[in-house]
Write a structure and sequence with these properties.
Length: 388
């Protein structure tokens, strides 16, 4: 029995598959130039003809440029591009799987003067374009960012009475209503991007001349802040906060851990043995990754020690290594990433590490404190190249 061989072209309908349409790889024929010549020998001729197929994918494109191009594609286009050739397939898979690294946002010129324009860039890819950024209003150009999350920055005005959210990638600005007098010295944090329905912004501080803990909450659309005051008989200063598992975790200067539930408006001190910091007055960073809580402490000798909270046993466990994770540390916001490149695994990137890489060796030195609220890691959106 003879079987017919059928070639599918762009105008021919391919056999149906169980894959959804968005995941079906379609032939790419537009934009390519094919030149074919036959290598077979005809009966009446002794000459041989070579069979060559060429296309645009045969052109030499640097890997970095190819990855930048493919990173701008959506899922459907990414899959189609991976069918061009082996090189494109490897680059398409690479940019699709790796999560976006955080970007740095910090002043361009003087690190001490207020009102300085900011620079937004990816310091791990110095060849990419650097973006000058000026805050939308002169009143909001004083040095200092309070919190960073989901591509947004939470900060205060010059007089520290007003709070605003700003997205450096989309240039969107959201004003928050004026808070109480405690906003002058309070710390700030938020749970999600203000475009999300789960967004909650909090202002927290110890009540003056008291051990009580004051938390004020605001949600998008509300005209005023809601005040929650929690009684305490022990004097503690809570200066670190991170949102995870639907609650805000707080770390005090003495190593205690507390939890605020914004839905239930409850405050609890967790039965965890206080964490002993290795150095007095050394920078401490409270972070989360997939529901786990981490604390990273820096030492004067530039080494770092990382602790992970064992929630079942309520103890802090020191980590000998990061287990393949990558840490991006800054005062306004610190992030932990998994599944980055082999070069980035088990590495810690402080917010001042690439100063000379960014500005050059002839530029002024960064502040002696190294860590500053004027320097922050920012999480870029997936389509950040289309926004800048």
């Amino acid at each position: 029995m003879r079987t017919r061989h059928r070639d599918y072209t762009a105008g021919t309908t391919q056999p149906s598959t169980s894959l959804p349409e968005a995941l079906t790889v379609k032939p790419i024929v537009s934009g390519t130039k094919r030149i074919r010549s036959c290598n077979a020998k005809s009966k009446g001729s002794k000459k041989k003809k070579k069979c060559i197929t060429t296309g645009l994918w045969d052109l030499h494109i640097p890997t970095d440029i190819l990855e930048v191009i493919l990173s701008r594609l959506g899922l459907k286009d990414n899959i189609q591009a991976s069918a061009v050739c082996k090189t494109w397939c490897e680059s398409a898979v690479y940019v699709h799987k790796l999560p976006c690294r955080p970007w740095l946002l910090h002043p361009i010129d003087d690190w001490t003067l207020t009102g300085t324009p900011y620079l937004l860039l990816d310091p791990l890819h110095p060849s990419q374009k650097k973006h000058n950024l000026d805050f939308p209003d002169r009143r909001f150009r004083s040095g200092g960012m309070s919190y960073s999350r989901d591509g947004w920055v939470l900060s205060k005005t010059t007089l520290h009475m007003y709070t605003f959210l700003f997205n450096p990638f989309t240039k969107k600005l959201i004003f928050l209503p004026a808070g109480s007098l405690y906003h002058i010295t309070s710390h700030l944090a938020f749970s999600a991007a203000p475009t999300s329905t789960s967004c909650v912004v909090i202002s927290y501080d110890r009540v003056f001349k008291s051990a009580d803990f004051l938390i004020e909450t605001w949600r998008p659309g509300e005209a005023t802040w809601t005040t929650h005051c929690f009684k305490s008989s022990v004097l503690r200063s809570w200066d670190k906060c991170v949102f995870s598992n639907g609650v805000f975790y707080f770390l005090s200067t003495c190593g205690c851990l507390g939890v605020f539930d914004p839905c239930e408006a409850t405050w609890n001190l967790l039965p965890v043995k206080p964490l002993l910091f290795p150095e007095v007055d050394s920078p401490v960073f409270l972070m989360q990754h997939e529901g786990d809580i981490f604390v990273m402490c820096s030492r004067l000798n530039s080494n770092y020690v990382v602790f992970k909270l064992n929630m079942k046993q309520n103890v802090w466990e020191e980590k000998r290594d990061l287990g393949g994770l990558t840490v991006f540390a800054s005062v306004p916001g610190s992030f932990i990433r998994a599944c980055l490149s082999a070069e980035d695994m088990n590495r810690i990137y402080p917010s001042f590490t690439d100063f000379y890489l960014i500005y050059g060796a002839s530029s002024p030195r960064p502040p002696r404190t190294n860590f500053s609220c004027r320097v922050a890691w920012i999480e870029p959106p997936q389509n950040y190249l289309d926004l800048l």
